[in-house]
Amino acid sequence: MPQPPLDLTDAFIRLGSIRHDENDLNTVLARIADIAKESIPGADEVSVTLVHGSEAHTAAYTGDLALRLDEWQYEQGRGPCLDAATTGTTMVVPDMATESRWPEWARAAHAAGAAGSISIGLPIQEAVVGALNIYRTSDDAFADVTPMAQTFAGYAAIALANAHLYESTATLAEQMRTAMESRAVIEQAKGIIMGQRRCSAEEAFGILAKVSQDSNRKLRDVAEALVRRATGSLG
After folding, report:
1. CA-CA distance, 109 to 116, in Å (whole number)?
2. Which of 33, 34, 52, 69 is 20 to 30 A distant from 136 in Cα terms?
3. CB-based contacts of 170: which residues, under 8 Å, 6+ apart?
């Protein structure tokens, strides 16, 4: 006996409880797809499409059928999930058997067992857009659940944007930490050269840069090697 759909309020609570410091973006996307499948009546399979420039891919899916239906659209360069993602609107396919906007895809989808679909645009950030794709395999109409699916997608978009922001911020923080560590070791190496050569800071940096260029090694790696040799000889 199938499980009854989740109450939409419970779904929102589950979306809001996702810990971005404990889950990467792919895990958040998978959670969103799973919650959508459990929450929206008639959602037999769910996927999330992400589009960056001209490249589209399925970032999360609950079953192979959803993945196949998405990928057939990417191969053809058109379909409801792509149109929803790029326009930020909702694309409803009430009946795959009579769908005329994307006839080739709809025929393949119907043959694979899909009866209808809803794709809802997910604005994530300037460079990346997406769509929440809901596929049904039964003949029950989707019309009654479209507003519910759109409301869910609105909350999902917030969760996605927060996850993307957290991941971007974490990446930036790591880049800044690495840059500061690089700067520190380069300054150490410059100090060693200045002491040995009795030269200025600018001349010391020039020596480091030349060794880096001549040896085809990163400036930081050259500096680290010099610092290790100097500290080792003092030990």
Report:
1. 9
2. 52
3. none
Domains (ranges, CATH) in the chain? 8-171 (3.30.450.40), 179-234 (1.10.10.10)
Q: Is the pTM of this model over 0.85?
A: no
Q: Are 79 and 192 in contact (CB under 8 A)?
A: no
How many whole angstroms separate alpha carbon 154 and alpha carbon 170?
Answer: 24
Question: Checking phi first, is residue 4 left (phi over 0); if not, alpha (psi -120 to 50) or beta?
Answer: beta
Distance in angstroms (rounded) separating the CA atoms of residues 115 and 110: 6
Q: In the 8-state DSSP scheme, what is residue 144?
A: G
Q: What is the rounded CA–CA span in Å between residue 110 and residue 94?
A: 12
Q: What is the C-alpha to C-alpha distance for residues 170 and 64, in angstroms, rounded to an integer?
A: 32
What is the predicted pLDDT for the residue at 184? 81
Alpha-carbon torsion (204, 205, 206, 209), positive or negative = positive
* Residues counted in the chain: 235
Inter-residue contact 59 to 85 (CB < 8 Å): no
Which residue spans within the chain are E strands per DSSP? 45-52, 55-61, 90-93, 116-125, 128-136
